[in-house]
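Hey L., structure's done. Input below.
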Amino acid sequence: MHRRLLVVLVPLAVLLVAALGVPLSITVAEREMQETYVNRLNDVGRFASLAETALSTGRTEALQQELTRYHELYGIPVALIDTSGAVLLGPADAYQKAARTEAALPRIVTAALAGARSEPSWEWAPWDDSALVVAEPVGRDSEVVGAVVTISDLSRTRELILIRWARLAGLGLLPLLALTAVAWPVSAWVLRPVRKLDAATSRISEGDLTIRADAEAGPIELRRLARSFNTMMDAVENAAQRQRAFVSDASHQLRNPLTSLRLAVESLAPHLRADGDGQQVYDVAVDELKAMQRMLNSLQASARMESLRTASPVDLDEVLATRVDRWHALTATAGQTLTVDVPPGLRLLEPPGGLGSILDELISNALRLSDAQAVEVTAGAGDGAVVTVAVRDDGQGIDVSERAQALQRFWRSPRHQNVSGTGLGLAICANLIGSAGGELRLEEGLPRPDGSGHGLAAVVVLPVAPASAPV
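Output:
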């Protein structure tokens, strides 16, 4: 997470350094070029003064030596030209060779012969390879008799500019490195409570309500958030515990009176007349008492299983190894067939209470409620993040409009009103699977033998167990 924070902070720092460094770099380059121009301007001004004296006296040998010596020392061709542009003094060959590549030379020389000092001809950008042409008139106004012209290669100046730019870039990297060095531990310190809070919420989403956030680390705002989060989780856990305790206690307290009532009702059997209406009322009362006892047992089982809120990794092969033989025995007794097609090596997070108990309930529903002739259990790894286990049958099925209601507590299909059950089985399974981060879906099952439609499929989707998690 702190890497993402650095991804935000470092580009902003780079933009800030660039906003300061680019104008400074431009200023450095312009100053360097301006200094070079001023030096050349001083040189041609001195040579123009000497040329005016030499031309007026006719003594040009000393000036020729000065111009030649200057070229040898600095590698800059400098020449005295007349009003026609012909070279009078200086290294003519070097001057003419350099002049052939400079498009700005004629304009600058024309301005100098007209008595005007030339403006700079160079571009400050270091990637521009043009030379610096400077011309100084010899004489003044209408008495101009020539001009001194220099053609300076600026490669060395541009190298100096690039070197200074590199130094500025290096200096600009120092605060960026310092920012990164400081921001990394600081962001880790700031975001460590956030990561722990994220881990805590992840565990809570898996059903572990005992997890609490660290309220002693990080900035004051995050500590305050962690304390509020812990207070909220205390209230949620207490409410869940009170709810489970109420269901368990109520079921337990009702069990004894209900058992006594059933015994009292069953004790009336010897006193009933075989030809009277009392026998029918007696049978209804006993059936209702049995149904209430089954419901109390289911509520107690639900409370016990919901108190186990931690999912654990398990191998699906091990779960099936303890269940498949019993499933085959149950289906064989009822004259039904069971097919199990599960690839080996699937490892998933087991819901609280055990995946085997959930599959037992789904198999039981397929056998008791659907009048199925065939039941099929399949599994697959899905997209690699989840494992899907499906129990399909070719029985009566459930209408699409009723499938969502079938996962609610106490719901029973109108077709199953005369079949023993409480309507809690699928609801409890869906709740336990959801607490493990999974999902229970009801879908279309196997085709019915008579071709009248399809049965029901109960599809359990559970997360794949982490590779490092012990089984």
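Residues 47 and 148 are 7 Å apart (CA to CA). The chain has a mean pLDDT of 79.

-- N.
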